[in-house]
Amino acid sequence: MRVAHFTDIHVRRPLRLAEIPGKRLLGAANLAYSGRGAGFSDRVVEALARAVLDLSPDVVVCTGDLTALATRAEFEAAWTLLSPIFERFPFVLVPGNHDAYTSSAARKRPIERTFGAFTGGGAYPAVHRFGYLSFVGVDSARFHPIFASGRIPGPVLSRLGDVLREDDAPCQVLLVHHPLLRASGEPATRRTRDLVNRADLLSVLASADRLGLILHGHEHRGYRGVLSLDGRTVPVVNPGSGGLERVPEHRRTAHVCVYTLAEEGLIDVERHAFDGQAFVPEPGGAFASGW
Length: 291
Ligand SMILES: [Fe+2]
What we know:
Low-confidence stretches: none
Shape: globular
Structural class: alpha/beta
Helix content: 25-40%
Order of helices and strands: EHHEHEHHEEHEHEEEEEE
CATH class: Alpha Beta
Mean pLDDT: 94
Strand content: 15-25%
Bound molecules: fe (ii) ion
CATH architecture: 4-Layer Sandwich
């Protein structure tokens, strides 16, 4: 089966007055002054949707950060931009930290209200079965007043062990927004940005012997690695942001990956890069560009 994967499109819409207080003010200022916000655009996401239609995968997955500041307007805009994809293909989604950006968004979970049909309705871990593949989504998004780190709630981790054992798919794919590895291959253990209970997740995964692939996002520059788990290795892939405009001087653009998976696991990785107009196969092969 062929699985398309994109992440971190960070759809933005202007804030209404009532939405401004608190972390959103900090976030909006940060996006404006750091120039990070300026890099994301609807036209790239529209091109991404066209690319996914052309690639015609069996399933499409997204590892979160649909929005920048988790407002209702951003979720509605993301819905409109992504509708060509989920109207045509099975679609599976997990939240990112920006989808639970404020304490109120973390409590009210607007992502579940808008996209609940694709997350599994807000109950995690969520198992989405397609033929010989099971996608197991976990929610690592939580509110933190300053940090972008994530945490998988303890009860979700305990259920994850049972779910991975009881699910009988020959090949399981874990979807989680936060990375387990850094681009260098080192463990992702920064307190400010990474999964604070990474070690607990790894001990649950150690006994998951049909886990064939781990997909994540969060870092906007893509990379792939290999996670060692109790004598086995599992490939880990982050395509990089799917919503960034192309800026050659910063060696930056949007990407989408397509994986070919058999019952035994991952066979092939393709990566397509936004060339300013459309997504084209990455020159030199997946991740060859270093962008
Ligand atoms: Fe993120």
